[in-house]
Amino acid sequence: MKYLLLTCFLLAVADAQLTVPPSNPITSSDVLRLYNIMVAPFISQCICATGVNPVFVDRFLTKFEFPNDACFKCFLKCLATSLSITHPDGSMYVETVLKIIPSANATMNTQCDNQSKDNLDLCERIWLYGQCYASFVGLA
Fold first, then answer.
1. SS3 content of the chain, % helix, strand, coil (to 5)
2. What span, in angstroms and rounded, lies between the C-alpha atoms of 118 and 114?
3. Buried b / exposed e along 3-30 (16+ C-beta atoms within 10 A)
4. Number of neighbouring beta carbons within 10 Å of residue 53
5. How far apart are CA 36 and CA 51, in angstroms?
6. How far apart are CA 140 and CA 136, in angstroms?
7. What is the full DSSP assignment across 114-126?
8. Are 128 and 92 in contact (CB under 8 A)?
9. Which range is the signal sequence, renumbered to this chain (predicted)?
10. Cβ partners under 8 Å of residue 50, min gap 6
11. Phi, psi of 86, deg, nearest 5
């Protein structure tokens, strides 16, 4: 009986720990830093593959700016493809996005996917999704 009570108590404590919000919530600068770490291995490859202006890439990585430039849009698509977060139609692999994109959640994913899903240009679709994400996490 003691073990049953102890087990129930430990489960209740563990559940409470999982539902308490973190004392230091993630900030927009944390999101930007984590995103940069995540995409770093693919930056050079995607710059070369798309011919994007490196100034646009620098602004994106330091200020999360989304210039309206065709090569930049395809640069974002290249990053998304390299991270394996997109389906061939440009929609996001929800489970992967939620696991690896800082501050992503199901509400954000649904909202951003809905805003971009009617666009047939896959580079533009990823660009629209990215802008929505930046707005959602307070970087836009």
1. 70, 0, 30
2. 8
3. eeeeeeeeeeeeeeeeeeeeeeeeeeee
4. 15
5. 20
6. 8
7. HHHTT---HHHHH
8. no
9. 1-16
10. 71, 72, 74, 75, 78
11. -125, 145
What the block records as the tokens of 82 is 């390299």
Mean pLDDT, the chain, rounded, equals 81
C-beta separation of 94 from 80 below 8 A: no
Q: What span, in angstroms and rounded, lies between the C-alpha atoms of 130 and 65? A: 10
Record the pTM: 0.77
Residues in the chain, overall count: 140
Domains of the chain (ranges, CATH numbers): 28-136 (1.10.238.20)
Whole-angstrom CA distances from 17 to 8, 9, 27, 51, 119 are: 14, 12, 21, 48, 42
Give me the half-sphere count of Cα atoms (radius 13 Å) on the Cβ side of residue 125. 19
